[in-house]
Amino acid sequence: MIGSMYVIVEENKYQLQKYDSDGEMDMPVKRRGDSRRGQLRHAFSEALPNEDPRRRSATMTEAKEYAYSRLQQELNNAQSELKLKDEECEKLLKVRDQIGEELEELTASLFEEANRMVQDANIKRMHTEKLLAEANHQVEVLQAEVIALKQLVLTSTPSTPNKHLHPQISKGDTPKEKEKKKEKGLTPFWKTHRRSTSHHQFTQEDRVMAEAQHEAMSDRCSEVDDVCFEEFKSWRHSPSLSRNCPFIARIAAEDICTCLNFTNTHLAERVLTCVENNSLAIEPIPGDTPYMGKCELSQVPKVCKYKVKLGEDNTWNCISQHCRNRITAVCDFFMYVRYIQQGLVKSADKDVFYEIVKLRKQMALARLGYV
User: Fold this and answer.
1) 283-339, pLDDT tens digit by residue?
2) Helix (H, G, I), strand (E, B), or coil: what is residue 17?
3) pTM of the entire structure?
4) Is residue 307 a contact partner of residue 281, using CB atoms and an 8 Å limit?
5) What is the end-to-end Cα distance of the chain in Å, rounded?
6) Which of 136, 236, 296, 330 registers the highest number of CB atoms within 10 A of its CB?
7) CA 102 to chain centre
8) Segment 91-119 mean pLDDT
9) Within 13 Å of residue 290, how many CA atoms lie on the same side as its CB?
10) How many Å apart are CA 310 and CA 261, to the nearest integer?
């Protein structure tokens, strides 16, 4: 063993000496009872023979081997514990790397989910803004229609009677009867009775509205296509702009495609697609003096007052007044059909069908050039 050590010799159990690392005897260790042991050693010195040096060196060798084996065992235990510690450290490093990868994946998935939610919110916002713009446009159209109806209404008042509502006034209004009434001094009540100015303004609005209602009633068709009306009623239960529906397919074949049948067939097909998708824009060409140019749809030289843009394309195509009227007639039809699809039209089936027939008539008149 490294350093000094104590060895008890079995043959001489009464001697306890200190040896250094080389096996040489060092100073004796003083302990309690050394004097007594010295006496005993002196007493037995004559009886016991001297110790053998070879036996003492063998004992020291065994002690060194024993100490070396213990140190070797402790070293092996320390190495095994260190190996276990290294394995635990490797496991912890693997767990740390795995947790880091999972954290990165979770962060990436959270960012993707946040981006998707932002995109969905933007799409919903754009859709809502589009619906709001359409609703505002519809409100403006309805307000303009109400104002126009008020201006076109004609009612029967004492000052200005409506003769078609009161046919008894016009009966007997021949020149001879008028002369007789003048000779007798008979004056109708409606010519002598006067109202205030404010009342006159109110009745004028009513007259305009009544006249507009009368024109709308007179503009209705006298006979209705029963087959088309049945198709319309079945279509209104689940309205759609798809041409798979018999009602839309009929109108597309009879009115829409013929109204948008131009010389430039490729551009005409794109115009029809944009009208169906509600992605077409028509604007008047700026300037007070129109110029003679080539209409992109009809391919003939005409005065082009308007320009049209198709979808996301930034190119504007110059068109004539006639082509513009035909396109707007089709757009009016699709706008009304979209209102029906969105549930904004609450009228009865016949009234809605009459309005659709009126729009079909408008497309036919625009195609023939009457609009």
Assistant:
1) 998 877 777 888 999 999 988 989 999 988 888 999 999 999 999 999 999 999 999
2) strand
3) 0.45
4) no
5) 123
6) 330
7) 29
8) 91
9) 17
10) 17
